[in-house]
Specification:
By secondary structure, the chain is mainly alpha-helical. The protein is built from 19 helices and 6 strands.
């Protein structure tokens, strides 16, 4: 058992206790971050005269060789080591001798693991941001191609007013754009370096913590050594942001599942992103959308687990905090995988545009426009609302849309109706008249699309 703390103990740890305590099975994930942090620490120690230049070069060369060997598969990270820190240090000592024993000068595993986790999370935030940006690019392409693709907008899952597919996709663009903003906020707020905080009370060595922070790309060193080793706020923030991403993906998945149903038939999911039934040959199931919807609970669970773990922990570091890793790693992998697959699914999905437009017509989404027509011809709105409601009942009874109802039926209820009613309630007119900022009118949508394109080019 490779441990960094044996001097105080006179007997070996029980194997079950050792296994329960060890973290190598999951913290091996950030071996690169651990080595990067150690390299910066060694450079700082040499700058401060705590290590000789020759010792610095020996250690750096040894760390570089470990990094290369792990990457190539020549050196395996095995369970004989308690954690990634003991793996790196033990292999370093084996390669460079006594100089390697000085690597840990002026630091504790507490500030070391805090650093590794921050470096890892920072890298992962950048990756997650990239996959969300790819999703936004896919949404923007759909928007650009569907400014005049008419469909029903819904409230309460009831057809409400006509919109366009571009406008509908634009709502999700806004959601995922906010998600990127949250990720960027978290990255900025967490970008302080805990290395040099020691176990909880700093160190007597003359460390230059600002220099270490600079080497590792942090904005500054953390300002309180106790908080440095016990802070997991940034993980809770990240898990909250990831939960929100998954919530947005799940809402979107739910709509695609509905749109893919026989009743809607708004979309055709590509064969590569759907499966069939083992018994029913006609089935084409939206499995990716359903799995994304299902995996949302998994990420929510990680957030609740982290909040529960942290709620009763006194200052400073406690071993409970080791529980932050597996659930966070799993949540990150889940979000990256779901977002990438979802992007592929919507990028290859076929939209049945005529079916969408007919659904909007048959759902009486233009009823409000028919009432507005009467108001513009001098009929009080409350009367207009009642008249159009009766017209809708008549259409339902005959199984037709307002567009198909003969003019004489309109005029039986109000002489204000003229031939121009059909143009007034066409999907094209209904949408084009909605030109307020953020509405689905084509000119406004083109302006929004231009802004979205500029945003993606800038960020």
């Amino acid at each position: 058992m490779a441990q960094l703390w044996g001097g105080r103990f006179t007997k070996e740890t029980d194997q079950l206790v050792y296994n329960f305590n060890a973290s190598i099975s999951f913290d091996r994930k950030f071996y690169e971050q651990d080595i990067r942090g150690s390299m910066a620490h060694v450079k700082m120690l040499a700058k401060q005269g705590i290590l000789a230049e020759e010792e610095k070069e020996q250690i750096l060369k040894g760390l570089e060789s470990i990094l290369e060997d792990v990457r190539s598969g020549k050196l395996l990270i095995t369970s004989e080591y308690e954690d990634i820190h003991s793996f790196v240090e033990a292999n370093l000592i084996e390669r460079v001798g006594d100089a390697g024993k000085k690597l840990h000068t002026g630091r504790s595993r507490n500030d070391q693991v805090a650093l590794d986790m921050k470096l890892y999370i920072r890298d992962e935030i950048d990756e997650i941001d990239g996959v969300v940006k790819n999703l936004l690019a896919a949404l923007l392409k759909i928007m650009e191609e569907n400014v005049e693709t008419y469909m029903p907008g819904f409230t309460h899952l009831q057809k409400a007013q006509p919109v366009t597919l571009a406008h509908h996709m634009g709502a999700y663009f806004e959601m995922f754009r906010r998600d990127r903003g949250r990720l960027q906020d978290i990255r900025k707020r967490m970008n302080t370096c805990p290395l040099g905080a020691g176990a909880l009370a700093g160190t007597t060595y003359p460390l230059d913590r600002d220099y270490t922070a600079q080497l590792l790309g942090f904005d500054e060193a953390t300002r309180n050594s106790m908080d440095s080793v016990s802070d997991r706020d940034y993980l809770i923030e990240l898990l909250s942001a990831l939960s929100t991403i998954m919530m947005h993906l799940s809402r979107f998945s739910e709509e695609i599942i509905l749109w893919n149903s026989n009743e809607y038939r708004f979309v055709e999911i590509d064969d590569g992103y759907s499966t069939g039934s083992s018994i029913m040959p006609q089935k084409k199931n939206p499995d990716i959308a359903e799995l994304v919807r299902g995996k949302t609970g998994r990420v929510y669970g990680a957030l609740m687990s982290m909040l529960t773990t942290m709620k009763g922990i006194p200052l400073a570091y406690n071993k409970d905090m080791q529980e932050d890793k597996e659930l966070t790693f799993d949540a990150i992998d889940t979000v990256k995988g779901c977002t990438a697959l979802f992007t592929g699914m919507i990028s290859t999905m076929e939209f049945h545009k005529e079916r969408m437009e007919n659904s909007a017509k048959n759902g009486f989404t233009n009823a409000t426009d028919a009432a507005d027509y009467l108001v513009n011809h001098g009929v009080p709105f409350r009367d207009a609302h009642s008249i159009v409601g009766r017209l809708v009942l008549l259409c339902i009874d005959r199984g037709i849309s307002l567009d198909e109802l003969p003019l004489e039926e309109y005029r039986k209820l109000s002489l204000a109706f003229g031939e121009d009613i059909y143009d007034a309630i066409s999907m094209k007119t209904c949408v084009e008249k909605r030109m307020t900022y953020g509405a689905p009118g084509p000119e406004m949508m083109k302006e929004i699309i231009r802004g979205n394109r500029e945003y993606l080019e800038r960020n």
